[in-house]
Amino acid sequence: MNERPKPPIAVALHYNVNGGGAPRVVAKGGGQIAEKIVETAREHNVPLQEDAALAGALSKLDIGREIPKELYVAVAHVLAFAWSVAGKSPPASSPRPEEQTARLPALGYSSSKW
Fold first, then answer.
1. Which regions of 1-114 does DSSP assign to beta strands (E)?
2. Where do transmembrane segments lie in this chain (predicted)?
3. C-alpha angle with apex 44: 40 to 48, nearest 5 degrees?
4. Residue 7: pLDDT band by 50, 70, 90 thresholds?
5. What's the rounded Cα separation, in Å, for the pair 84 and 96?
6. Are 108 and 38 in contact (CB under 8 A)?
7. pLDDT by residue (tens digit) across 74-94?
């Protein structure tokens, strides 16, 4: 029995470091959509972070919308987590071309830790 609980909600973010805007919601959903978001993240080695409150708040945003200022600190922690897992530091003000787009974790939550 090595199955993990399936998240009822998952949210994926995208952040263009050089784009001048905030991270955007690029996918969100529950049930099978949440499972697909998590599966796709794993297939592309995108770190996953479980945060029920943040996933709930982000899931209320429209796809393509930048995150609101109220979520900047929480998402900054997610960015730091993603860069840490990847063994990288947050890009400087002049990122190298290969670091211009950061892949953010898909966020999900379930009643128990994955």
1. 9-16, 24-30, 48-50, 101-109
2. none
3. 70
4. low
5. 17
6. yes
7. 998 988 888 888 787 766 644
CATH of residue 30's domain is 3.40.1690.10
DSSP 8-class letter at 107 = E
Residue 82 is part of which domain span? 9-109
On whether residue 2 sits in a domain, the answer given is: no
Is residue 73 included in any domain, yes or no?
yes
The model's pTM: 0.71
Q: Is residue 4 domain-resident?
A: no
How many domains does one find in the chain? 1
Q: Report how far residue 41's alpha carbon sits from residue 28's, in angstroms, rounded to the nearest whole number.
A: 12
Please report where in the chains the tokens 């708040």 appear, as a residue: 57
Number of Cα atoms under 13 Å in the Cβ half of residue 15: 22
